[in-house]
Amino acid sequence: MYARAAEEMGRELAANGLTCIYGGSNTGLMKLLADSALDAGGRVVGVTVQALRDKEIFHPGLTQLHVVPTMHERKTRMVELSDGFVVLPGGIGTFEEFFEIYTLSILGFHSKPFGLLNINNYFAPLDALLDKAQQEGFLKAPHREVILRADTPAEMIRRLKGSSVYS
Fold first, then answer.
1. What average pLDDT does this structure show over 26-31?
2. What is the pLDDT of residues 64-96, one digit of tens each?
3. Domain for residue 99, yes or no?
4. Residue 14 belongs to what domain range?
5. 167 pLDDT above the threshold of 80
6. What letter would DSSP give residue 102?
7. CB neighbours (10 Å) of residue 20?
8. How far apart are CA 6 and CA 15, in angstroms?
9. Which of 17, 140, 144, 153 could form an SS bridge with 9, CB 3.0 to 4.6 Å?
10. Is the pLDDT of residue 32 over 80?
11. Is pLDDT of 166 > 60?
């Protein structure tokens, strides 16, 4: 189900003329996302650090690959290149990137839309944690409300496009 969602997201990005920007890997769900976006005629841009480029195999079909010196510069470049962010189910790196984008939004360093693609209710525990943080006074309601949520890629694209960046 996660693989199908990643492939569907790639097709939706391409169908809507949106460039897929990600780490550039040729493995896992991100490979499937990139493959499906490219197969649907979309653009896919990878952003990585030199240390990983020397170790990993990157997607051979990338429209473009940016190589920067540090992880901090990698994330900065990804934010610069992106008009919005979609978080698919993933591991610790996914969570770290989500929280960085979320924090940068709260602090006013970007006003780009971002959301959780909640396949198989994957992000329910995260939502419960954020609800608890809000209940305990650690997270303000307006900051909680900036996160878009959708159960399907098509709905996520609609919500992204309905945000202020695309309006």
1. 91
2. 999 999 999 999 999 999 999 999 999 999 999
3. yes
4. 2-160
5. no
6. H
7. 23
8. 14
9. 153
10. yes
11. no
Tell me, yes or no, whether 165 lies in a domain: no
Amino acid at 77: R
Across the strands, what pairs with 116?
Answer: 87, 149
Amino acid identity for residue 49 in this structure: V
> Edge-to-edge, what's the strand order for the sheet holding 147-150?
85-87, 114-117, 147-150
Q: Enumerate long-range contacts of 124-128, CB under 8 Å, 24 or more apart.
A: 126/95
Q: How many CB atoms lie within 10 A of CB 96?
A: 13
Total tally of structural domains belonging to the chain? 1
Task: Write out the E strands in 24-164.
Answer: 44-49, 64-68, 85-87, 114-117, 147-150
Asked if pLDDT for residue 152 goes beyond 90, the answer is yes
Q: Which stretches of 40-123 are DSSP H helices?
A: 50-53, 71-81, 92-106
Q: Containing H/E element for 12?
A: helix 2-15
Q: 39-70 burial, b for 16+ CB within 10 Å, e for fewer?
A: eeebbbbbbbbeeeeeeeebbeebbeebbbee
The CATH number assigned to the domain holding 120 equals: 3.40.50.450
| Residues recorded for the chain | 167
